[in-house]
Amino acid sequence: MKIAVIGSCNIDFVVESDRLPERGETLTASTFFTSPGGKGANQAVASAKLGGDVTFFGSVGNDPFGDDMLDAMNRVGIDTTYVQRVEEPTGIALIQLAEGDNRITVVPGANERTDRAYLDAMRETLATYDMIVMQLEIPMQTVETVVERAEAHQTILIDPAPAARLARHVLDRVDYLLPNETEYAIALQTDRSIEETLVRTRDGLLITRGGEGVSYNEAGVVHHVAPEPVDVIDTTGAGDTFAGAFAVALSEQMTLHEAVRFANRAGAQATTKKGAQEGMPRREQIDGTMDDTN
Asked: Within 10 A of 128 (CB to CB), how many other CB atoms are there?
């Protein structure tokens, strides 16, 4: 199956320290580095590194950061033919790492130009893809328009991050929704617990829960997949890796349980190295290590 990822491209500016600064405090950090990122590009890279047939749709600036983003995607075999170059600067993300956790601030930049006009130009091309993967670092109108125009044969997967409310017609059409343990309440506008929400929601809702693994529903039954035991170095990009891996698993016709386990293992492996895309595993790191314990 051909996978189209429609989403954001950002250059990550990463600062690592022993702890996060308090409000108004100046803190000396130990490490600084830059790396290609953005939830859309991350999910495309995760999919491609795991063997997916991936094309990326999005926008970067006519600047060196835009060149860096395209180079990073091309190196792992992603088709970037339809990425548009615009006058706005390439998006950036400021990431603070401390104690195995992160805080992220995003400046969208060129990502705002992945808009209705861009979709109009890409409409016939997008219709040829079997699966469409999206996130919410591009305009919400873009997400809604893609869903409205989707062909019946197309599988739609949405990672609702950054967290935002999704319109009813989007929720009704999306095949798989992949929020984390805080995003689900905002995306679905609910105050119910994870378990109650899963019971009351149709198949296709998967909630990632960090150290508690993943919960999902299938045929009215709630299932839990335990977290993978790894030494966590950097959690940046773990959720994107899960989404990209899940898309690949579905494209290979894995069962839902197999797909969740595959994505869960990939997401865990992504936390064992620094950098969102650099830490994403390749297929050989996942194959051959799957057992039947979960």
From this structure: 11
Cis peptide before 162 (omega within 30 of 0): yes
User: Active site residue: 18, 120, 240, 291, which one?
Assistant: 240
For the stretch 55-112, pLDDT in tens is 999 999 999 999 999 999 999 999 999 999 999 999 998 988 888 777 888 899 999 9
- Going through 149-259 in order, the beta strands assigned E by DSSP cover 155-158, 176-177, 206-208, 214-218, 221-225
Q: Are 268 and 69 spatial neighbours (Cβ–Cβ below 8 Å)?
A: no
pTM > 0.70 = yes
CB atoms within 10 A of CB 96: 19
Q: How far apart are CA 254 and CA 54, in angstroms?
A: 18
Q: Check if 71 is active-site.
A: no
Domains and CATH numbers, the chain: 2-18+31-278 (3.40.1190.20)
- Interhelix angle 256-269/238-251, nearest 10 degrees: 150
